[in-house]
Amino acid sequence: MEPPSYEEASRHLSVQLAGDPTQPSPPSYTSGQAPSVVVVSQPQPVPIQVASLRDSPGFVRCPHCQQLVTSNVKYVAGSSAWCTCVILGMLGLICGFCLIPLCMKSMQDAHHSCPNCGKKLHIYER
């Protein structure tokens, strides 16, 4: 059996595209059915231990007010910033440059406090 010629195939395709009134229409999928609803749920955040707080805010349970909070962080120049400042000063660098460690967050201690009750939670020392 030979395949149909180009003219026969295009005639058959045009009949299929135009539609055949004797053929039943395909079923409608939207009649009588409500659209499905997708519910996306996220897991509840798990608080970390207060002692494991580092230099960024963390989600913890305050030991004072027992509330789940994200800690407030205040950066204060600690011993590593002051020691670096003194070492740079001893090296004889211009005094302005020896003060740079006091302005860098990466050299400062992070003091965590509770936003609810305001009490100190933890100090992360560098």
UniProtKB/TrEMBL annotation:
Keywords: Membrane, Metal-binding, Transmembrane, Transmembrane helix, Zinc
InterPro entries attached to this UniProt entry: LITAF, LITAF_fam
Cell compartment(s), UniProt: Endosome membrane; Late endosome membrane; Lysosome membrane
Isomerase among keywords: no
Protein name: Lipopolysaccharide-induced tumor necrosis factor-alpha factor homolog
Positions of transmembrane segments: 79-103
Membrane-topology annotation of the record: Peripheral membrane protein
Domain (LITAF) ranges: 42-126
One of the record's GO molecular function terms: zinc ion binding
CC per GO annotation: cytoplasmic side of late endosome membrane; cytoplasmic side of lysosomal membrane; nucleus
Main location group: membrane
Keyword NADP: no
Family assignment from sequence similarity: Belongs to the CDIP1/LITAF family.
